[in-house]
């Protein structure tokens, strides 16, 4: 299997997903969509669209979003497997007809639990603590199944049949990733009154998150 991941900003990459995919024999390529680099539809079996501090409605500021949406539509019509994470999930939701908007309760940032439903409830059984960093939220598109919620936002994950999954939260990130995000988004943390040490988490949180990522990868590939 061949996977292509689209990066919307330099600092947000595949993290632990790369290792989990490659260990299962998947060839993985990351492309900087923000620089206008996109694959041909024949180049991949799995399309992953990653996160970034961008709104799906900001096409005028970030014209590459139009191309991402076009590629998502084409991938859906061609039966490609799709994973959207954070901004990627919001783009997928919009393409499928779901509304994406700024979250009415503000930004959800840091280590917070999600409450699995549907297939995720089979994977994780109980609530799991994952990493969040988003200000927008989405409606579950018609024809899709809700897979998770949090205390702050009711829609945290969804799937379209056995083809596409959108995750608002992050299970892919590594400690090194978050150090990079803290550096890149320091002003945002300050404006939200958040402490860097809270964001960095601890060894237990990181070990569990890596396991959650690996379990989800196995699920995605067998979906």
From TrEMBL:
Residues 16-176 form the Glutamine amidotransferase domain. PROSITE patterns: GATASE_TYPE_1. Keywords: Glutamine amidotransferase, Transferase. The keyword Repressor does not apply. Signal peptide: none annotated. GO terms for molecular function: transferase activity. The keyword Transferase applies. Transmembrane segments: none annotated. It comes from the Bacteria. Pfam families: GATase (PF00117). InterPro entries: ChyE-like (IPR044992), Class_I_gatase-like (IPR029062), GATASE (IPR017926). GO terms for cellular component: cytosol. This is GMP synthase-Glutamine amidotransferase.
